[in-house]
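Why do we care about 3D structure at all? Because function follows from shape, and shape follows, mostly, from sequence. That is the central idea of this module. The next example makes it concrete: a single protein chain, its amino acid sequence, and then its structure expressed as tokens.
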Amino acid sequence: MLSAIQRLGGAMFTPVLLFPFVGILIGLSIVLKNPVFVGDLPDKEGLYYQVLKVIEEGGWTIFRNMALLFAIGLPIGLAKTAHARAVMVVLVSYLTFNYFVNAMGGFWGEYFGVDFSQAIGGTSGLTEVAGIKTLDTGIFGAIIISSLITWIHNRTFEKTLPAYLGIFQGASFVAMLSFFAMIPAAWLTLYIWPSIQQGILSLQTFMLESGSFGVWLYTFLERILIPTGLHHFIYTPFVFGNIATPNGITADWFMNLESFTQSSTAMKDLFPAGGFAFTR
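And the structure:
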């Protein structure tokens, strides 16, 4: 069990390896548009500003599609064979899962206690994944669904089918099984997740509102769980999710870097959530 958890933790780290480059890219783009450092160059009507803005927008790709990134990153580390095909099936199946959630929520949202007529974000519990309005399961949901599909892949990809069904063998067979697995997965998610969401929100709210003790508890749990690999579940929603700040501590730090450098207000007042990233 410990080995499996550690393997999962290692797989979760794969997408994180992409963050340093885009983080540096976004940081440099923001700094080079800051009048404090470059004077009058960053005129929004000028080519200098526009080129930097284009580069910066490209850099936000990863941070704006975090759940999708973690979903397709897991099979790279967890699939036993045919990793590329596993990634393809996970991508298709994860999108299918969100379409199922969208359809079920639209028809039976009242039964699940979820109002799908609300706008995404805020306290609605809704978000958008690849243009699909869906329940906001964050990175947790992506990891769970991706793990399930990868598990199906590992057990069925090499299964030999009768000759007349040969066209459905391999990745096609995994995709077929995953399609039908996503139906109950979507239903269970809508049925269970809102309650889990409240529990997670309560713990995270406690950390956020408990001042120094909350930061200590966050850091303690993050560190003590490192040997099990479960520490990713503590820091990821804060650093890359929308728990402490709307777009995650990392993304919102870079997004507000220019205004931070121009302010004389203490950083603990400007960006109090930054305390949860002291260990990064």
